[in-house]
Design goal:
About 15% of the residues lie in helices and about 45% in strands. With about 110 residues, it is an alpha+beta fold. It is globular.
Length: about 110
Amino acid sequence: MTRSIAGTCFSDHKPRFIQIKGINLDAEVGQHMLYTTNADAPGIIGLLGTVCGENGVNIANFQLGRNRPGGDAIALLYLDAPFPEKVLDQLRAHQSIDSAKPLHFDVGAA
């Protein structure tokens, strides 16, 4: 399986993801992030927000991308703290989520 990712730094000197797996987006890189994949369908934003909110996970930034309407989609959530494992299990158990992975980057907190 081939995976691709592209990034850049704009005038604010903060790194950003601009493309993942051929899907365009503009997501600031944060220390604690959550990466999800799913089919592009209504309700994903609400699902992610609800699961995070019900479990006390604060979202600092939320970016979406898709390759086409109804196709493959990704979400990148920039979080204030690491994503709890028990919440990750809850999210992964949902039929709409294909995969969910916590990410950690050695960047300064915003």
